[in-house]
């Protein structure tokens, strides 16, 4: 599910996406998991991932990182997928429940590339992750959907 921003609103804008991992291409198979398409230059004011259904792995050592094309761990470094449990925020390699201060790597970051998850080593074959991004355009064509 993808939700776009309402252009009549004042920034920061919010975009959200939910990924249901299956282990299939773009949904948990080793490689990229597309999250948001970015055009132009944008400032990510905050990016926060929240797990609604715990992630599982097809084989030991499946990892998940959060970043952009060309810098796959820009926001969150590779994290063992089974450490990302239901009702936890994933904004660092140590997911936590209840509440967490958003770390520096997940706020005030200028980007020009698409926001992606990157699965490493083994497939992530189940679980649900919601990712919310609050952003501002830096260029006239800056957009996140």
Explained architecture:
- With 145 residues, the protein is an all-beta fold.
- It has one domain.
- The protein has no helices and 13 strands.
- A hairpin with a 5-residue loop joins strand 8 and strand 9.
- The mean pLDDT is 94.
Could you give a quick summary of the protein structure above?
The chain has one domain. Helix content is 0%, strand content 55%. The chain is built from no helices and 13 strands.
What would the keywords be for this entry?
145 residues, mainly beta
Topology:
Elements: E1 2-3, E2 13-20, E3 31-36, E4 38-39, E5 42-57, E6 63-68, E7 71-80, E8 88-90, E9 96-97, E10 109-111, E11 115-120, E12 124-137, E13 143-144
Antiparallel strand pairs: 1-2, 2-12, 3-11, 4-13, 5-8, 5-10, 5-12, 6-7, 6-11, 8-9
């Amino acid at each position: 599910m993808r939700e776009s921003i309402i252009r009549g609103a004042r920034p920061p804008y919010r975009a959200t996406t939910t990924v249901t991992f299956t282990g299939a291409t773009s949904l948990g198979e080793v490689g990229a998991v597309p999250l948001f398409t970015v055009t132009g230059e944008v400032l990510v004011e905050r990016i926060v991932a929240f797990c609604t259904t715990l992630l599982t792995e097809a084989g030991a050592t499946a990892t998940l990182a959060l970043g952009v094309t060309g810098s796959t761990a820009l926001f969150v470094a590779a994290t063992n997928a089974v450490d990302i449990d239901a009702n936890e925020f994933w904004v660092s390699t140590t997911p936590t429940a209840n509440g967490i201060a958003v770390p520096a790597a997940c706020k005030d970051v200028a980007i020009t590339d698409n926001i992606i998850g990157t699965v490493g080593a083994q497939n992530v074959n189940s679980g649900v992750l919601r990712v919310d991004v609050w952003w501002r355009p830096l260029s006239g064509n800056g957009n996140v959907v």
